[in-house]
Amino acid sequence: MKLQSNPEKNPVSTYRHRFNYLACFIDAVGFPFGSCFFSPVTILPAFIRKLSTNSFWIGLTNAIHSSFFFLPQLLAASWIERMPIKRGYVLTLALIERFAILALIPQILLLGRTSPNLSLMLFFLTFAIFMLSMGFNGPAYFDLVAKVIPVTKRGTMYGTAGAIGGLLSIFGAWLAKYFLAGYEFPINFSLCFLVGFIILTITVLPLGFIDEPPSSPSQPKRLRQYVRDAIVILKEDYNFRYYIYSQIYLSAFGVVLGFLTAYTIDKMIATESDAPAFTAAMMIGKTIGQPFWGYVADKRGNQLVILINTGIACLMILWIVTANSIIIFYGIFALIGFLHSGIDIPSFNMT
């Protein structure tokens, strides 16, 4: 059954196409909204600071956030492409992600004060499960979206959904600030994680009901052959090679960002309740950036968006080095959100 049929000839197919779009849209709205309650750039560094003053752990969080998302995709892609239907796999892995966040809550409440070192180790275990699940799920999710959302509409969909998610995240940041300032540790962070879990779980469920057309069967490949093919593509396809290099640079840049919240707490007399305010600033930037970059990507191409945002990342390094007040850091976090949207939109379109 073709998903983009004539409405007058096939109203059932048209209804399913609209439902598919709505399901992807709801998930794209819910993910930034739910994730703002445990942002690895703002909330998690403040949480880790309650368990340890060693900056190594913040760096480890950033490393897990970057590497555990991208590396599993190479392993997973070889078997995912052989799945004719992917929605069940996508929903199962997505629920594992979310229940990993839920698993944080009891261990934080029980061990956060009495055994901070053990609580820290368990946090990294559950956070690693969360990111690995996202990594193994990534290729299937992007393939699922590619099958039901035309490429000419994907940028606009992610841009609009991201803008709405960003607006909701501003409210989420206010709610997180209320939790962190109004309750003692570890109840305050537990409430943040609980609300994030609820939002992410509710908004991902529609993906399990998508009317997904089966993929064409592909020949099974060994991982070694899959890696060889990827290397050949990397050598021969300039645009793909440029995209990979830009992602490596931007991922390395993202690792640094997690230290900003810890830096403002240590050097700028910020408190843990300021972390949600930084999140709000970041979401404002992302809310502006999502529809803007979505429109630019659809009209002028993904490569231009990546090029501009790589340049913005270079300029941001200079701004961060010279910043000397919390007020300036609000502007930095807003630009981070604007930059993130410019990274996410072309990545969603091209994968």
TrEMBL record:
Write down a Pfam family by its short name.
MFS_1
What this protein is called in its record is Major facilitator superfamily (MFS) profile domain-containing protein
Q: Which SUPFAM superfamilies match?
A: MFS general substrate transporter
Q: Which InterPro entries match?
A: MFS, MFS_trans_sf, Sugar_transport-like
User: Which keywords accompany this UniProt record?
Assistant: Membrane, Transmembrane, Transmembrane helix
Recorded GO terms, molecular function?
A: transmembrane transporter activity
Native organism: marine metagenome
Q: Where are the transmembrane segments?
A: 21-44, 56-77, 89-112, 118-136, 157-175, 187-210, 242-265, 277-297, 304-321, 327-345
Gene3D superfamilies given in the database record:
MFS general substrate transporter like domains
